[in-house]
Every structure is written in C-alpha cells, then in structure tokens.
UniProtKB/TrEMBL annotation:
Calcineurin-like phosphoesterase domain mapped to chain residues: 28-293
PANTHER family: ENDOPOLYPHOSPHATASE, SPHINGOMYELIN PHOSPHODIESTERASE
Residues of the Sphingomyelin phosphodiesterase C-terminal domain: 338-417
Keywords, comma-separated and alphabetical: Glycoprotein, Hydrolase, Secreted, Signal
Naturally occurring in which organism (per UniProt): Umbelopsis ramanniana AG
Family as reported in the entry's similarity comment: Belongs to the acid sphingomyelinase family.
The protein's name: Calcineurin-like phosphoesterase domain-containing protein
GO aspect biological process, one term: polyphosphate catabolic process
Keyword Hydrolase carried by entry: yes
Amino acid sequence: MRLLQITAALALCSTFSGKINVMAKSGTFLHVTDIHLDEHYLEKSDPATNCHRKDGDKSKNTAGHFGTLGSDCDSPVSLVDSVFDFMKGAAFQDVDFIVYTGDTARHDRDSKLKRTDSDILAAHKKVLSYFSKTFDMNKVTLLPTLGNNDMFDHNAMNVAESDKNSMNILEDLKQLWKPLDLNLTSDFSNGGYFVQNIANGPSVISLNSMYFFTSNTEVSDCDKAGSPGAEELVWLEGQLQEVQRSNKKAYLMSHVPPVDKSDILYKSKCYSQYVNLLGKYSEVIAAHLTGHTNDDNLAVLYKNGKDYSLTGLSKKVNIDFKTNDIVGVLTNAPSVLPQNNPGIRVYQYDQSDYTILGWDQYSTDLKKANKNNRITWQKEYSSGQVYGVQKLDASGWRSVVQKLKTSKKVFNKYKSFIKVEGI
Ligand SMILES: *[C@@H]1O[C@H](CO)[C@@H](O)[C@H](O)[C@H]1NC(C)=O
C-alpha cells in the first residue's frame, strides 16, 4: 500500500518537474516507553497498597481494571495486553524499527511485596515476548535501553568491582537480547550503551542515562576523570564523530531525559557537558528520544553565548532565547504506565537524510476505559497538524517554537498533550 502511494507520488512529481525522484520517501519507527508491567496488580484493590491488596473499607478499593490513573500503581496485564493488541494494527506493523526506552519492571514501592532480582529478569523476559509476539522480529529491529527500574538496585548502577551485582544485569540482558541480533559489543558489557546502524536508516545510539542521572548516587559527576559518566561522554563523542564522518545521522535514545518540564535530571557537570555535545553535534543528531517522566514534552536546545542551553517547555515558552539560536528540540514520549493517560508514538522520517518529519501520538482515555470496561486506543494528535510543520530539522523546530510562543491556542494544546489529555 505504502509502495503504491509512493509510486503515485513519484509519478505526480515527475509530471510537475519533468524529473523523477524529487520527493523523498518516508519511513516510520515506533517509540514505546515505561511499560512497568505488574503481574501482581489487583483490580478493585486499594491504590494505597500499590494496587496489590484490598482494604477492609470497600470505598478505598478503587483500582481500575485497566490501571489507576495518576496513582502509585504500575501497569496491569490488561493494559499491557491492550497496548500490544493495538500495535498489531497496520500503522504499527509497517515500522522500520522500534525504540523502547526502558523501565520494564514494576516499581519497588511495596514493602510487603519486595521486588527480587528474578522478578526484574522475569519482567524483561515477559515484555520481550510481548514484542516478539506482536512484531515480526526478522523484519523490525527492537532497540532497548536500561531504565532506572530495570536494574537490580533501584536507581543504582556502578562499574566498580564492589558493585558486581548491578553490573550483572548487563550480561543477563545481553543473553536475553540475543535474538534481537543487536550490536552489543564490549561497550555494552562495560557501560550499557551501544550503537545500532539501521539498514537504510540512521545510526541509533542507545545511551545509558544511569551514569548521568542525579538519583544514581553510586557514581560521581562527569568532571571526575574515569567516572563512568565521563567515559560514556567520551565514547558518545567518538560515535558522533564516526556518524559525521560517514555522512549519516544519529538518533540518540535513553531512558532519563536531561531535563524534565522544569528540572534538570542529570548531575551538574554531566548535564552541561552533555548539553554542549548535543549542541556541537546538532547537525548530526536528528532525533533525541527519551521517556521516564511519563510526560509528553519538548525541550528546546539553543545556542547561549559560546555554550548551549536546554529549556523544557511547561507553563510558557521561556523568552530568554532567540528563535534563531535554536538548534534542535528534544522530544520525550509519554509512558504506557498510567501516570498520565497511557500513550505510544510513531515517528515519520525522511529516508534520504533521516530528518524527522513528525509524529503521531496515540493514547487511550483510561478513566473512560475503566468505566466502560472496554479500552479503545486512538490517535491523540499529529505533530504536523498541530504545529503546521512537515520537516523537523533546526529550521522546522524554530517554526514550531515560534508557533508555541505566539499562539495561545497552540500552546494550550501542547499543555493538554503534556498530560496526554488531548483526547
Ligand atoms: C557496533 O558498535 C560499535 C561501538 O561499540 C560501533 O563503532 C560500530 O560502528 C557498530 N557497528 C554496527 C555494524 O552497528
């Protein structure tokens, strides 16, 4: 079908210009994040128990069938089943690759039901099997990364011998991910990051944000020589130079974004060095894809004197930067975990230069699903329709930010998307 459309488009182009091949073909990829599967989730239990137990007082047992919006409960099997069922649809089966930015396991919040190492591995296995039952893994590359809940110790990861336990997860995952046929070199065994060159596509760099994340107190900031974060940044720059030399484009993916709507989530030196790398290589980096915060949000990367800065957009477009200084925008996708309404997203990209063209955000109205005992997923919005921009290179992003700055209507839409309430 897509081939037919492309042929038709090419035919049209040739009629108008007298030349073939002036229109680029577009590819698509899927972004899924923060599944947080919890097989202990109990419908009509008390959310104060992380939806694990019922209270004697029946009025407290409000846990919904498909999840409990905005609570401290993780995703029930019914929700995860439904999102993977939805992904069996045509819009998703055609994708060229899948970016999965982690947080597979449930949170370790329930002191009466502690999470064990084998629970975590079981969650990784289960979610991998969901993907392989939903997609033809011979055709689609699944690109995973580690979340802060995917390791044996919550938020904690070190490279030191003394912390063997937290490193073993990398060997376990390397085994588990074997069928994915990924480029897991010694870089992955040592640091949890890797590069995957997609055939006729971008080089996807899957980063380990755990070495930058403020909550990981096991490792020092990136100004400390030999700290795993400092080493990762050196590695990243090497990879970006490689991509630049080969005239390709890189898509960066990781679990934790450098900024939330307003807060900085990386250690201070890791943060400034990382942001400057993003700026320095902004012409090479065509996409920056993260999850973790459960919000759909945009962070503007702009030149600030001789350095670069990053501003997450939340209540307003900060006016401390000039539109012309913008070199890119980082996109953060909402989670399956029902902190907000659950969502997944499909990006379109130009297959000749790998520029992002836009994305379609899909979501479900969870309260309605629980009320009707029936869940339906639909398109929440298309970036192209909302922002009126069809190519998200630096100049396209400038137009998007300009629109957010000048149109209250567009900005209010954006605000409703943050919480996945645009349906
Ligand atoms: C594999 O990863 C290494 C870095 O670990 C990278 O230099 C190389 O280009 C990658 N190769 C492929 C085929 O993706």
